[in-house]
Amino acid sequence: MRVVELVVPAHDADLATDRLWAAGASAIEERDDGDRVVFRTVLAADDQVSTERLGSLPAGWNVAFVDVDDTPAETWREFAVPIEVNDELEIRPAWSDAPLRPGRTVIEIEPAGSFGLGDHPTTRLSADAVWRAVRPGDRVLDVGCGTGVLSIVAVERGASSVVAIDVAEAAREATDHNAARHGVGSRIDASCTPLAEIDGPFDLVVANILAPTLVALAPDLRRVLAPAGRLVISGILAERHDHVIEALAPLVVTRTDVVDAWAAVELVAGATDSSAG
């Protein structure tokens, strides 16, 4: 198995962990070497895609790619548990035999070793926002679809169709696989098409990706949004995302939710700001 090895100063360990979770890690191995910390994880099947997911690294951080025995890397599956998104929605590993709670919509995900299950705060926040924002018949765009969990949530909530895009071919495959598991493959079109080549308009756009990428994609995120559409963004830190909101102007914030220092923000065109933490 090809893994990402990230080496950072010890005082940056927490920041590095957050960066890896946000980049799509499903499990992280950590080794303390005194004045530095070494992390190993899987982000994508391709080194270049993994590098893009990590984004620009701070000074003193070093990344490499190494081949390791994949047997230990799969042991995380033994400890994966269902994630309660809200009172009506749950995301769980496809192999989980945990008891089901009556009346709750369950999204079963097979991450294929390359993406998270939905346990990172940004995914939970985004899933909750999509659950709340989708209206029956909506056309939805999922930017950075990963396992396809947000696309499936959108369809389960009533979206007529979802266009799901990601830079990683492994993400397209995972999305197709998980959509088929749920019997909604015909309503989710997954591809590696760049956002710049996607035609709108979409009633709801969701982008759970890192802040630098959100800023870079801001013009196209605005372009594909319907005049009365809603945009949900996540993958951003609660205390450091003003520059992302500025890049998305004239869209305005209608709601902000925070979990464990991460935020999900909902924006629309021409609304009154009613943001709440």
Automatic annotation (TrEMBL):
InterPro entries per record: Ribosomal_L11_MeTrfase_PrmA (IPR050078), SAM-dependent_MTases_sf (IPR029063)
GO MF: protein methyltransferase activity
Native species: Ilumatobacter fluminis
GO biological process, one term: methylation
Protein name as it appears in the record: Ribosomal protein L11 methyltransferase
Keywords associated with the record: Methyltransferase, Ribonucleoprotein, Ribosomal protein, Transferase
A single Gene Ontology CC term: ribosome
Keyword Membrane carried by entry: no
Domain of life: Bacteria
Pfam families (alphabetical): PrmA
